[in-house]
Amino acid sequence: MDTRDRLIESARELLWERGYVGTSPKAIQAHSGVGQGSMYHHFTGKPDLALAAINRSAEELRERAEVAFATPGTPFERITAYFRREREVLKGCPIGRLTQDPDVMADPELRKPVQETFTWLTGRLADLLAEALEDTVDAHATAPALVAVLQGGYVLARAAGSADVHTRAVDGALGLLAGYVAKEGN
Amino acid sequence: MDTRDRLIESARELLWERGYVGTSPKAIQAHSGVGQGSMYHHFTGKPDLALAAINRSAEELRERAEVAFATPGTPFERITAYFRREREVLKGCPIGRLTQDPDVMADPELRKPVQETFTWLTGRLADLLAEALEDTVDAHATAPALVAVLQGGYVLARAAGSADVHTRAVDGALGLLAGYVAKEGN
DNA sequence: GTCTATAGTGTGATAGAC
DNA sequence: GTCTATCACACTATAGAC
């Protein structure tokens, strides 16, 4: 891993743990072992490095989601696979947490990957739900509800200090969904 | 409103907008019009003032929830009233957002009101759900799922820059719930 | 109770040597 | 590419006068 990469990975880690406002260039340097001058050689400043880090995290989220969605089975089984996938619940969502960062939301460049990630994920899920539910219920409203369960589950888990609530929330959501799943042909 | 109160109200506002890490004592002083010395007379420091602000916000959240829950009607109607209640969606949840603040979660005193608020809300909702659903589905898992929809809805709305997604997520969740509501005796 | 002064540390970046 | 030096400003307080 070269210097540039180490900076991005450290930024990703710290952004995840402490957010944009809570992460200083100095902290990134200390975490990565890269010096001041070196960092400013590779990136114009904190926002530039953060953008690279956010983009990489967004890409990773998408890839991991696609892996779960590619599980063999019915659409409902593929949705379930995604929701039950392993997660670092207590650390929260590396993209979702940025939503609470005033400086990220205020900067269109930093905000864009966050916005696009959720638009993509919600759309992807809506398609699967449309297949799974076959008009028993509105996929266009159900998709954001499900994504919200995941994101809100992180909030509850962090508040409680335990991953259990996230699991329960997912169980609850899938439990509700189950009753609407088209019984045949999937 | 006296000086102490003005400080608490300003801290509440800024904590809501910028979080704990992103809010400086100086900013609170500027926002409230209270001087440096005055602030440190009334509070021992930033954590002390933040605690007062968080406690007040937590109390307010509870009171507002109880107002909605007290709506006349069936348990499902009371739950619906709570979920459809007016919200400053794009500002997010003043308590839920603290969950992403590393310094809040690291301080047991600051964290406690956050934890208790969600424990209370989830429990309250579980009781109403148990009445509304009458064992058609597990209220113990459904309650955190619903709270998560609310919290996650804020995340989606902020990411999208529009309150619509929050509304859709709530619609989706209530739509799923509707099919399980006990049809008589409520 | 409120004010001003002061202080030590951190932030985010620039400059220029190597 | 990487290093050290330096900078102007912000952060979070403390001290002591009024």
From TrEMBL, chains A, B:
<dbReference type="Pfam" id="PF00440">
    <property type="entry name" value="TetR_N"/>
</dbReference>
<dbReference type="GO" id="GO:0003677">
    <property type="term" value="F:DNA binding"/>
</dbReference>
<dbReference type="Pfam" id="PF21993">
    <property type="entry name" value="TetR_C_13_2"/>
</dbReference>
<dbReference type="InterPro" id="IPR054156">
    <property type="entry name" value="YxaF_TetR_C"/>
</dbReference>
<feature type="domain" description="HTH tetR-type">
    <location>
        <begin position="1"/>
        <end position="61"/>
    </location>
</feature>
<dbReference type="InterPro" id="IPR036271">
    <property type="entry name" value="Tet_transcr_reg_TetR-rel_C_sf"/>
</dbReference>
<keyword id="KW-0805">Transcription regulation</keyword>
<keyword id="KW-0238">DNA-binding</keyword>
<keyword id="KW-0804">Transcription</keyword>
<dbReference type="InterPro" id="IPR009057">
    <property type="entry name" value="Homeodomain-like_sf"/>
</dbReference>
<feature type="DNA-binding region" description="H-T-H motif">
    <location>
        <begin position="24"/>
        <end position="43"/>
    </location>
</feature>
<dbReference type="InterPro" id="IPR001647">
    <property type="entry name" value="HTH_TetR"/>
</dbReference>
<protein>
    <submittedName>
        <fullName>TetR family transcriptional regulator</fullName>
    </submittedName>
</protein>
